[in-house]
Amino acid sequence: MPLSSLKNYTIFALFFTAAGLIALSLPAGNPAAPWLAGAYLAGSGYLAGARLFAVEPRFWRFYLGFVAFISTLAVLGSLAYYAYKLDFFACGAVTLAAPFLFLAVRPAENTAQALLKSGRRRGTDLTPGRFAAWLAGAALAAVSLSLCVYGFRLLTGAVTEESIRSPWDAVPRMFFIVFFLAFLAAYALAESGAAAGLAILPVTALALLAASVAAIVYAVGYGFDPFIHQATEAAIARFGVITPKPLYYVGQYALVTLAGRLSGFGPFPVDRWLVPAAFTLAVPCAYWSLRRAFDWPPRLAAASSAALLLLPLSPFIATTPQGLADALTLITVFLALPAAAGRRSAGLLPYLTAAA
Predict the structure, then answer these.
(1) What gap in Å lies between CA 236 and CA 253, rounded to an integer?
(2) Which residues are CB-contacts of 332 (< 8 A; sequence separation ≥ 6)?
(3) pLDDT tens sequence across 69-92
(4) CA 81 to chain CA mean position, Å
């Protein structure tokens, strides 16, 4: 029986929701809270994907379901904040309700989806030549990902509390060489055609690396607006509400409050990484969208997804409501692209991200 069935979904949803409620009840700083919160978010995201995207491969089922679930938390948290406040009981109610809302979605597989699914299965026999090509591509992906990890190490070595004009004043020159080599390996993997779909992994890592420079280098924080929003989020985490209730900012505040309570980290670490992470999620979304909207091969879709790194990164390096809205808009546009191109749509997901 598939995971999207009513019985299986309910059983697993109860399990993951229990993990989320336990994480919520643990005191701040408890080392078990982040693991339980991660199990709740990842597990509930996969369950949501099983209902919304039953015909997608497992990776995309998880990715799309995770985006849907996080968007649902933002929307439910915003409604709870305006109807009441985001105290412990309201966060618990949102944590409990969010996974079971997807039971209202009926998983269906129409003829076009079935043909697409069967089409993916054709031509997938693993011949020795194809296996060797896949190994070569996997090696390139490993090289690029390793260089990205080294890039993060260089950034953590450049952390400063001083007032500097630009993070590049503290980042060593080697970072640019490492970034270029990592991008070169990822682009070569995408263009080679050997396991080209794997290229989306290092390209996504590069997007996170590029958007994380300010978040890592500035130990105290970057920009003026984030300090104002962090102070508001700290007040909401403590009192559950701040008046007047800010309509324009409530999506970010609800998401930061819920994630901070679930993980036990509090609002500040979540706030710092929210928008860089949201921008990073747009990269696999672009790959998925280009594949579904125009039936592009993995080689072309992966190489084109890397073009997101050409966008001005200033809206995505520090968390503000405007930056979060920009990242969610980018994701929503890509999610809506298959339907706009006359192909099968992403269903409810673009509406969820737009509402978030």
Answers:
(1) 8
(2) 350, 353, 354
(3) 999 999 999 999 999 999 999 999
(4) 23
Q: 129 falls in which pLDDT band (50, 70, 90)?
A: low
Residues 6+ apart with CB under 8 A from 111: none
Rg (C-alpha) for the chain, rounded Å, is 21
Q: Tell me the backbone φ, ψ of residue 12, rounded to 5 degrees.
A: -70, -35
Closest alpha carbon to 318 in 201, 223, 200, 251: 223
Cα angle value 24/322/81 (rounded, 5°): 35
Residues facing 160 on adjacent strands: 218
Q: How many CB atoms lie within 10 A of CB 13?
A: 20
Distance CA 55, CA 350 (A): 18
Q: Which long-range contacts (CB under 8 A, 24 or more apart) does 49-53 make?
A: 50/2, 50/3, 50/4, 50/9, 50/107, 51/4, 51/9, 51/102, 51/103, 51/105, 51/107, 52/102, 52/105, 52/107, 52/347, 52/348, 52/349, 53/347
Cα 215 off chain centre by: 17
Pick the closest to residue 65 from 285, 237, 317 (CA basis).
Answer: 285
Burial class (CB in 10 A: 0-12, 13-18, 19+), 248: exposed
Q: Phi-psi bin for 105: left (phi > 0), alpha (psi -120 to 50), beta?
A: beta
Give pLDDT tens digits for 9-37.
899 999 999 999 999 999 988 999 999 99
- Give me the half-sphere count of Cα atoms (radius 13 Å) on the Cβ side of residue 54: 16
Q: 286 versus 161: which is more confidently predicted? A: 286
Instruction: Give dist(CA 100, CA 95) in Å, integer.
Output: 10
Q: Answer for the pair 107, 50: CB distance below 8 angstroms, yes or no.
A: yes
Residues forming a β-bridge with 218: 160
